[in-house]
Amino acid sequence: MAGGKETPRQKMIGMMYLVLTAMLALNVSKDILRAFVAIEENIQKANLVQVDRGNGFIGDVRSELSTSKGDENKAKREKLETVLKSMDAIDKETESIIKFIDEIKLEILKVAGEQVSTVKNQDPLTIIWEEGKGVKPMRLNLDAVNSQDKYDEPMLVLGINESLTNPTGKGAELWKRFNDYRAKIVELTGTYKFGENSFVVKTTPINDFKDNKDLQSKVEKMIDGNKQANLKEDRQALIDLYSMLTKNERVDVKDVKGLHWVGATFDHSPLVAGIASLSSMQQDILSARALALNTWKSRVTTGEYSFNKIAPLAYGQPIANTGDSVYLQVMMAAYDSDNQPNVVVTEGAGDAKITYPGNGQGIVGFKVAGGSEQIIKGTVAIKNKSGVEKKEPWEYKVTIMKPSGAISLPELNVLYRGYPNKVSAVASGFDQTTLTGNGATVSKSGEFWIASPGSGRTATLTVSGKNSVTGKSQSLLTQEFRVANLPDPVLYWGASKAGDKGNRRETKLFAKYPPEIPLNATFRITGWQVSIPGAPGVPPKGSGTVLDVAASNLISQVKPGMQVSFICTVVGPDNVQRKIAGAYQM
Prior knowledge:
Elements: H1 8-26, H2 30-67, H3 74-111, E1 128-130, E2 139-140, H4 152-157, H5 169-190, E3 192-194, E4 197-199, H6 212-224, H7 231-244, E5 250-253, E6 256-260, H8 261-266, H9 271-298, E7 312-316, E8 319-321, E9 325-332, E10 342-347, E11 353-355, E12 361-367, E13 373-383, E14 389-401, E15 405-408, E16 415-416, E17 421-427, E18 432-438, E19 440-445, E20 448-453, E21 458-466, E22 473-484, E23 490-493, E24 496-497, E25 509-512, E26 524-531, E27 541-542, H10 549-556, E28 563-571, E29 577-585
Parallel strand pairs: 8-14, 16-22
Antiparallel strand pairs: 1-2, 3-4, 5-6, 7-9, 9-12, 10-13, 11-12, 13-14, 15-17, 17-20, 18-21, 19-20, 21-22, 23-24, 23-25, 26-27, 26-28, 28-29
């Protein structure tokens, strides 16, 4: 091995060592492959959400067209039909590129020797669960793929097996069609004619930029150069559309200069990761489609309605204590911001005061009297475009409360084990409030009560009121709550949540709840492991929240478009040890 003569046995050992090293280098961790499968599943679900979101905008316009009848709505119908025609054109372009990307996925699977002729929804052994339809991508089950770690096949299909700088075949076509779609959808969104007003948008390719700030500047300059566009109303939507479909064509990875985006994204990418990258492209396309359709919808849903049917509406707080002030919002169901209603109280509140905030509402304020309920009646009137006043009666009932108890959980309607659940309890009509629990211990902490449930599935809390003068106590309300374990936290790499784009310079990991879980729980990371596709050797491991030098060095080798994955052990306030994972796009 050092250049001297070697025996046949030494040569054989050396050759075996080289083969073993190569096999280790090519081996992809099963955990990483499972992470890619999970990422692809999440992307597919997100794609369905975007499809439904866009379809909803089309449905709104179709519904509006179906209700716009009569000669007085002729101009409006023509405008709605123009909008639907443009929406159909956007969907035609979207369907074409979504189907093309699905065809690439199928070809990769076929070349890898996978069975893709069977379609069976929700079958764990079948790869294709649903075929694509319209703009909806096909539904795949990558758990059923046998060759999840193969990377030669995606490179071959995408034409980068011989050159990462100049893709051929499907890879070159994918890049061209993606950029053609960007130009087409922006132009379809910004080019239209309503009556005498005509607007035109043309785009020029932008595929080279330093960072997002540079991209934003270049796109703004290009869009602003369209002097025939409706920049007053459409500018930001056009900028956002173009930007969200723009990728840097050439990137530098280590000592390789001018690497093509296709080459950088799919170079030695495991099959499941390659398909996830293609699904991510579909997500960009479907998100852009939804934005374009929403932009078209907005052109017929702002300030253009003629009221052929109107209905009165009064709403506000339905329950009040004796002597409380109550405010009702009274309005027409459809209104014109330049044509405020005239609200009159005729019965039930002689002291009512009416104010008009200018948003099509009249605010009725009054004090609640005694008894069990109070009924307020009146009229609301508004003028049509001909100046004729339309008057309708309205009525509202307020239930007047007697002393009662109320319990609320500011965070969630559930009690979590091992967590200080904040409970707000009020005994109306008493100057002192007490809270007791069955299946949970209760203690006072500032303005809240802290409830700590036991091992049962449910717990009950009882609020009681006490009159400090008479010393009399009264149980007012007992309420049952579900008891559950704390949900698992989400892994953050620096400021990036699992599934987001990562920053290779970040060195800290955090486990916490995202904004949609409003629990103030602290989790500490006791151990971590980091992996990247194709990395040789054992993945770096460590403890605490800071990545060590070995992990940072490994991450620095990640190419753009690849994934960095972490598996962490975390402990929460309930002292339960959890395993959580997160994958980040580079």
